[in-house]
Amino acid sequence: MLDHPRKGRLLTEDDIIALEIGAGILGTGGGGNPYIGKLRAREMLRADYEMRLLSLDDLDDEAQIVAVGGIGAPLISFERIKEGREGLRCLRALEHRLGFTADAIGCEEIGGQNAMEPLVVGAMAGLPVVDGDGMGRAFPEMQMTTYSIYGHRSTPSVMCDPHGNVVSFDHAITEKWHETMARACVIAQGGASVLASAPMSGAFMKRYAIPHTYTQAIGLGQAVIDARKTHDDPVATICAREGGQHVFSGKITDLQRHFKGGFNVGIARIEGLDDCRGSQGEIVIQNEFLIFRRDGEMQVCVPDLVVVLELDTGLPITTELLRYGQRIAVLALPCHPLLRSDEALNVVGPAAFGHPDITYAPLAEKGAA
Amino acid sequence: MLDHPRKGRLLTEDDIIALEIGAGILGTGGGGNPYIGKLRAREMLRADYEMRLLSLDDLDDEAQIVAVGGIGAPLISFERIKEGREGLRCLRALEHRLGFTADAIGCEEIGGQNAMEPLVVGAMAGLPVVDGDGMGRAFPEMQMTTYSIYGHRSTPSVMCDPHGNVVSFDHAITEKWHETMARACVIAQGGASVLASAPMSGAFMKRYAIPHTYTQAIGLGQAVIDARKTHDDPVATICAREGGQHVFSGKITDLQRHFKGGFNVGIARIEGLDDCRGSQGEIVIQNEFLIFRRDGEMQVCVPDLVVVLELDTGLPITTELLRYGQRIAVLALPCHPLLRSDEALNVVGPAAFGHPDITYAPLAEKGAA
């Protein structure tokens, strides 16, 4: 059993503020806005709760880690305040159900609002949060984690809603079935619930979690804050940190968005500015920014990250906040190698998002450019 | 603990054949067609399984009874064959979960196909089925049982689908929330699953189950079979047995059906024949036959039973089998007094079906006419 309560680095309010920005950037337009989660986390720190971040290196192989995350429509959870203890109730119900005690809390998705939920639950339970996640970005469905891709069965799981209802997914024949049933249920519950998945071992997480993504997101957010203070270019700062490329600058000239098959889908067209004058950019949206094309040629594609920032401030823009006339920078960040295997591309490659015609061409990896 | 395995009356193939007709009549047009269930039950009897019917009088107060029933869209479960052991898996998962052993199987809904499911599960588990149910007819939603109405909390429950997925509803803040979440989940599972509810005590069932409804349905079906053999009038036979009234005979001249808010809703208009020549009948459909009006005046209304039979054969017609030009008899059968209390009318009265303008006027009770 892990000597858990006192392990890990204590997070500060400044870390949470930076995490909001970093998680927003890694959300690639989706994953929900981390703003409400930031407020919750900050209030907890002010009320003397402790938030600890535990490196994967410090995790015992035998430790049992429960990943928790919000499930539902991101826009709903931005507008509808949580009851607040949904995640803790999930954790306790799962522990009671399976007869174990969690050693640490895990994160499913560092991109967007699910960066915050594990911190809140960890603080309430007195447990550290593992510094890593299952996506390294945001994806719209539960089976799209490296945990699921590399063999973890996420059932039995427990889902709690703000009303007090509790549902267990005892067994799903596939990870996708788990997603399908939980998705239907959360919609019935009002669209903003929390789910805790079956525990993972420390040994499994060390191998298959995308590592250090809390540290990465906090550092990224802090770099943007610092760049703005010193009037440096935040876009260049982000690219330098992440081994990314600034692939386009432009003004949004056309925006089509609609709801199809449970996804927010659409296209944003961008007229080039500055170095890109005379070029046309196009972003394909499917909850997240999925694909970027320049003058009809694909430049970046899922699972690599298409990040959209305000050109002037370097702050991330989510898909629902795109507006006609906005001046934006499009960045391409390489995804983690765990998302580039054949197993992973089957689940999170372009074909999994309905683009079987597109062959994934990986961006140069961080440090390789 | 109940001395259960050898108690109760053994059912025969003839009983099952009669039950198909009787359950169809008490289904008031809904509850699903019991035909497939009859085939399953008959095959089990031929394979030497035993089906036992246990009178409420023979039930120990301390006995623990698990009610099981199909949930989903009746039409789907008529066209899509079950895996077959969903109900048994639900029972076992619930027993394991709560750490008890069921003494008998209960029925939620005698009307339609849910008359058969408990018999199949009871036969597989070697347990008798209690002679009674929670509706005395068919209703479209789970909270519409006398069990729920009179205080049983049906969670924790377990739902199994034909694929092998298992979901538990651990806690629902109301019975209606249980219905809402289970309904969403079963739709995701393909529309034809089985659910086992939290156990009831023998003492509770003696007080709040609608009694003897298996015996009633089997007797009713047998009476129709006998009347057809002896060329007696099956419609008159049913009315005599059930204390009901033959309120209309006619030909369907107009039929409107559509899907609204999860219900099959519609109206059937009937031109009078025989004694009813010159009159117009109208049936309001909401999964079941809900209301019957003659020349604009309400004659029968939920929770009393509006039963539609083929005029010539006395065989029940379900809402989806109504056709233009059909010659039908409309019967009114009084519901059980347990459905007529204020508590019950709040859940299964006309207002609960979206007709707050209609005041329920009870039919004369069985034996009182």
TrEMBL record, chains A, B:
| S-Me-THD N-terminal domain mapped to chain residues | 15-170
Pfam families found in the cross-reference section? S-Me-THD_C, S-Me-THD_N
The S-Me-THD-like C-terminal domain extends over 174-363
Where are the membrane-spanning stretches?
A: none
Q: What is this protein called?
A: Hydantoinase
Organism of this sequence: Yoonia vestfoldensis
